[in-house]
Amino acid sequence: MANLAIPTIDLSPFFNNEDAENSKKRVKEIIRQACSEYGFFQIVNHGVPLDLLSRAMELSKAFFRFSDEEKLECNPNAGAPLLAGYSKQPEISPDKNEYILMFPPETGFNILPSNPPDFREAMEELFSYFTKAGQLVESIMNDSLGLPENFLKEYNNDRSWDFMVAMHYFPATESENNGITPHEDGNTVTFVVQDEAGGLEVCKNGEWIPVIPELGKIVVNLGDSIQVMTNKKFKSATHRVVRPKGRSRHSFAFFYNIQGDKWVEPLPQFTKEIGETAKYRGFFYKDYQALRMRNKTHPSARPEDAINITHYEISTS
């Protein structure tokens, strides 16, 4: 029953050439409510081909079945500024997974395997479709917030910082089942596709709600940047991954990002124009990402000491 609380939203009105304005308005209102209450929802009829999702997942599983030696052929070069390619979480990390990270294909940064043979083609195609879905969701959010037409599109028009991760989580042990510790994403919108193993959970009002995987559904969660820009009108979703016992978990996560030199702050439409005080100090996106990266490279002894968006929160006391 818990999964029913996470809205599933049909985006087909945005692909219908017939007059669907009333349907679009209903979708925008449902998304506005989901973003205000959860920062988390699922989408169907989103424009990403279902056969591509299935094919990409099977190719990802095939890659992670290879030996460590074969997978390490896609390991990022030491000292590379962008760690595209294959990586595995260090033993000391509480997160228990391995992954391949890729940036937009046109950047030339990607280190993708030649085996399975169709891996690169499928991942690049999936990246392209996720990008289009991100632009659509961003446009719907723009209208749901009552912002000027194409405001978010024009603000966030550089796609060079987007990235996608194909992930493999190791089976849980008898004593430990953490896949990824509870966190919020720093970007604007994240898409997640998980295999039948599930494991993704979202926190609402202090309760963890499992997101049950279903073929064709893409999970959408909002990140810190949108929470800041809307001055907390929209929520950044707290989520985690719990590894299942006796089986691996596979997923894709696509991060629809902001270009690093962009200044992020509460928009005037949600502060001075409506007589509300800004709840955050502004920051360059790349600076916040650097702080978040340091959480991983130099983890704090206490999880509560990790830097998150509260670092920029303005105290009202």
Keywords:
317 residues; alpha+beta; Jelly Rolls; 14 strands; globular; 2-oxoglutarate-dependent dioxygenase activity; Flavonol synthase/flavanone 3-hydroxylase-like isoform X2; metal-binding
Characterization of the model:
- Pfam families: 2OG-FeII_Oxy, DIOX_N.
- One of its GO terms (molecular function) is metal ion binding.
- InterPro entries: DIOX_N (IPR026992), IPNS-like_FE2OG_OXY (IPR044861), IPNS-like_sf (IPR027443), Iron_ascorbate_oxido_reductase (IPR050231), Oxoglu/Fe-dep_dioxygenase_dom (IPR005123).
- It comes from Coffea arabica.
- The protein has 317 residues and is α+β, with helices and mostly antiparallel strands.
- It has a single domain, classed as B-lactam Antibiotic, Isopenicillin N Synthase, Chain (Jelly Rolls, Sandwich).
- The chain has seven helices and 14 strands.
- The strands form three sheets. An eight-stranded mixed beta sheet has the order 1-2-10-7-12-5-4-3.
- Helix 1 crosses helix 4.
- The chain is globular, with a radius of gyration of 19 Å.
- The termini are far apart.
- The mean pLDDT is 91.
